[in-house]
Amino acid sequence: MTPKKVLCIINSISAGGAEQVLQNILRYYNRDCLSLEICVLHKTGKERFLIVADVPIHYLYAESWGWYAGALIRFIVLTVRIKPSLLFSSLVKSNIIAAIAGWLTGIPVVMSEHGPTHLYINDYAYPCIARAIMKMAYTSARNIIAVSQAGKESILSVFPKCRERIMVIHNGIDIDEIQKKAAFAQFIIRTPYVVACGRLSPEKNFSLLIESVAALNSTYSLDYPLCIIGEGSQREELTHLARQRGVRLTLPGFIDNPYPIIAGGKAFVMTSFYESFPLVALEAMTCRTTVVAINSPGGIREVLRDGENCLIPAGVHPQEIAESLNRILTDTLLDQCLTQTAANDVKKHFSVQLMIHQYDDILSRKS
After folding, report:
1. What string of H, E and C letters represents the secondary structure of the chain?
2. Between the CA of residue 333 and those of 90, 248, 290, 328, what are the distances in Å?
3. Where are the domains of the chain?
4. I need a labelling partner for 182 at 20 to 30 A (CA). Which of 110, 131, 203, 342 fits?
5. Domain 175-349, what fold?
6. What confidence tens digit (pLDDT) does each residue in 355-367 have?
7. Residues 17-31: pLDDT tens digits?
8. What is the Cα gyration radius of the chain?
């Protein structure tokens, strides 16, 4: 049987949940049934290091908004030339380009959405125009994959007519690969510390985390430093806040292998305003670092269960988060029970093998 040819498109292949998921799909998909090629809008130079060698890579060179028309034309020409049976896209910009190409060529499109659609629209300069364009794209897709039930409801709150074509596939992680990488001592903090990971931007709410660590240290007479892995526009602001609150803050920036730092932390904390799907929580659970997460909207509750595989503070006040942190730091038995249950949950429900099986099924399905 000739494998079904699928042309994938994504904004870039660097760090991020959607990018990690696609990397795993390209690495583990069933090559007896499918043949995948990938297009990237923004070239980072890391593509060949992150994508397995047998997957062809095509660059669309959309380095700014003015280049998107050219990227769309290049993608349409490529689609006509290689004649895929299916287009598979991830994230809004790529979803729109795939939808236009699919409409012009008659090739069905499967889209994946990894963020809160109802919030994305309001981020654009002209939300009404963005809504109209996205409605055209999403209602034309054969299927839309959401990464959580919360993500599905987010899409439906904006485009209710998409209900019949949406399905949920939870992100999965490569447990063996993460545990292997966690064993490398790449970046060492010699004292016990609290750790977090994410873009240094307002939606991650790291200012609340700094306030919480300050409350932890002052209330319980401790001196825990904080390490936040990631890069972004708030670096200077967060550094200044930590200095004001007396928190020893380490910002190592973006790291290719963050897992040794996550594994070395006493607690992994999530304070985001919204999480479509907490992929980084799964990574911390795999590294056997106990997760403390505020009960933010999104897919948090589809992964985390308070008192079973994590701690979810009663509220979002720094003192309440500090109390949960102190429980983990002082109760060894509780910490061990949470990390063991968390590791078992990841293996049972969120392995890369389970995710790949679901993606293989949807991508190989006849139109």
Report:
1. CCCEEEEEEECCCCCCHHHHHHHHHHHHCCCCCEEEEEEECCCCCCHHHHCCCCCCEEECCCCCHHHHHHHHHHHHHHHHHHCCCEEEEECHHHHHHHHHHHHHHCCCEEEEECCCHHHHHHHCCCHHHHHHHHHHHHHHCCEEEECCHHHHHHHHHHCHHHHHHEEECCCCECHHHHHHHHCCCCCCCCCCCEEEECCCCHHHCHHHHHHHHHHHHHHCCCCCCEEEEECCCCHHHHHHHHHHHCCCEEEEECCCCCHHHHHHCCEEEECCCCECCCHHHHHHHHCCCCEEECCCCECHHHCCCECCCEECCCCCCHHHHHHHHHHHHHCHHHHHHHHHHHHHHHHHHCEHHHHHHHHHHHHHCCC
2. 41, 27, 12, 9
3. 4-172+351-364, 175-349
4. 203
5. Rossmann fold (3.40.50)
6. 999 999 999 998 6
7. 889 999 999 999 999
8. 21
At 237, list the tokens.
């602001």
Q: Tokens for 93?
A: 């910009």
Closest Cα partner for 142 from 108, 105, 182? 108
All residues at 6 or more sequence positions from 363 whose CB lies less than 8 Å from its CB, including other chains: 4, 6, 29, 34, 86, 88, 110
Residues 6+ apart with CB under 8 A from 112: 18, 21, 88, 89, 90, 91, 144, 145, 146, 147, 169
CA distance 267 to 225: 11
Domain 4-172+351-364 falls under CATH 3.40.50.2000: yes
| Closest to 278 (Cα-Cα) out of 290, 289, 293 | 293
- Tell me if 73 sits within 8 A of 45, measured CB to CB: no
Listed residue (277, 14, 57, 275) closest to 145, CA to CA: 277
| Domains 4-172+351-364 and 175-349 alike in fold | yes
Contact 269, 237 (CB under 8 A): no
The CA-atom distances, in angstroms, between 58 and each of 47, 75, 90, 103, 181 are 10, 9, 15, 21, 29
56-88: pLDDT as tens digits: 999 998 876 667 888 999 999 999 999 999 999
